[in-house]
Design goal:
Helix 1 packs antiparallel against helix 2. The protein folds into two domains: 48 residues; 133 residues, Tachylectin-2, Chain A. It has 224 residues and is of the alpha+beta class. The chain has a four-stranded antiparallel beta sheet with strand order 3-4-5-6. A four-stranded antiparallel beta sheet has the order 7-8-9-10. Strands 11-12-13 form a three-stranded antiparallel beta sheet, with no helix packed on it.
Length: 224
């Protein structure tokens, strides 16, 4: 029994998975309701198979990332001892994609010979190789990180001195991050060490709440 040109609730028969088309061809005497159930089931199975093919597992993604990191000879470009266009060394740079910037944004710290302290800077890049300095965000500051806020804007954190503690800032928009003031600033009190807490990492961030991890100097003797 030819099935070319048939239509089902799922579309033209020709667009169905091969197993579904075979079910229609060989079971032409089965009730239409049962055929529809068979077709739907086979289509779901086929979709699940395609989903598995296009979405790697966590372990597969980690393995791929590890390969990129370890096999540097396959990199299409590289740059060591990176500095911005003003000569600031881009130590501990944290990079995120920001379409409004024309590419990427990097936050990093540089040592100031004149004061003997660190400062946090922001730069932009179109290719990850060449960086244009945009502004200094903090003085007596180091180990910066940045994360887009889930409700818009950007959350920034760094290690502020003195004493060494985590400072968190919220910028409502890219234009504020580029040239304006932070709309919210919070200096976290020392909780786990009386000497130093810093090197923050942002796990989740919004204008209302921040999930942050950090190092602390346990008993003023051991960094944890």
């Amino acid at each position: 029994m030819p099935i070319k040109g048939w239509r089902t609730d799922l579309g033209p028969v020709e667009q169905l998975p091969p197993a579904a088309r075979e079910a229609l061809r060989t079971h032409r005497r089965i009730s239409p309701r049962l055929v529809a159930a068979i077709v739907a089931g086979l289509t779901l199975l086929a979709a699940c198979g395609r989903s598995h093919d296009t979405h790697p597992t966590i372990d597969e993604a980690r393995s791929e990332l590890r390969g990129y990191i370890e096999d540097i000879t396959q990199a299409t470009a590289s740059r060591y001892g990176v500095v911005d266009d003003r000569g600031h060394v881009m130590d501990t740079v944290k990079i995120i994609a920001v379409p409004e910037s024309g590419g990427f944004v990097g936050l990093y710290h540089s040592f100031r010979e004149d004061t003997g302290t660190f400062a946090v800077h922001l730069a932009t890049s179109e290719d990850l190789m060449n960086w244009t300095w945009r502004r200094q965000l903090g003085d007596n500051a180091s180990m910066p990180t940045i994360k887009p806020a889930s409700d818009g804007g950007y959350v920034v954190a760094w290690e502020q001195e003195p004493p060494n503690h985590v400072r968190r800032l919220y910028y409502r928009s890219w234009s504020d991050l580029l040239a304006g003031p932070a709309s919210k600033t919070f200096d976290a009190p020392l909780r786990l060490s009386s000497c130093a807490e810093g090197t923050p990492n942002l796990y989740a961030a919004s204008s209302l709440a921040v999930d942050v991890g950090f190092h602390f100097y346990r008993d003023c003797q051991l960094d944890r």
